[in-house]
Predict the 3D structure of the following.
Amino acid sequence: MKADIIWLGSTDSTNEEARRRISDIDNLSVLSALEQTSGRGQRGNTWSSAPGENLTFSIVLKFSIPGNIREILPAVKAYDQFILTEIASVSMVRFLYRHGIDVQIKWPNDIYIGRRKICGMLIENSIRGSHLSSSIIGIGLNINQRNFDVSISNPISMSFCRPEAHFDIHLCLEEFLEIFNDNLSRYLTYTTENERDIVYRNLRREYLSDLWLLNEPAEFYDVTASRKFQGMIRGLSPVGHILIEDTENGRVREFAFKEVSYII
């Protein structure tokens, strides 16, 4: 599988641009913009990026639906959609490792160096029946930017970590996509339910091996109960919800996205 990269000078958001074009572009098309005027992140946040210094791009995936004779990507159940978060996150970790940058995944799909954020993702899935029909994986990676908006509390970039280097954003995108596509083929290629289960377990192990603060004490905010608590991440549920042990009472709770946040 090879991606078709479409470079844009400027757009409001690569995810929005991908949504507008999705009927006309091929599976695995990638829209990358030198400038985003209204970049979006998780939790309704904006994504700020200096024009031409970083990568802001969206990958379009189109999945086959059971009974559909057009085979695009293998069918993926809506229940299993977290696999895309795992593939994208693990791929970004591997890309940065190649450049000597040690990072971890802050659940669900931010990439951190210590307590500083180098990469964010916004993954938007479309569902038809019980399966995914398409996915738009939006990624913002800080590469050459050194001066950030003061309102952004904890950014870092590849050039901060490797001050002697200046990175070509075009080559960086091609390199990341090579890793991403290899992982996509690796984890979406199976013929039986047993093979599927083995593949998914292997991916989950790889994701957890890179998960920030796994089995380490940390402070969290329970959005549903409006309270802070001390806890430890103990793993993920089958659908990718985070499992956190409240160290006050030893109870392990399951949180969906937006139900809990880290206190950094």
Remarks:
- The mean pLDDT is 91.
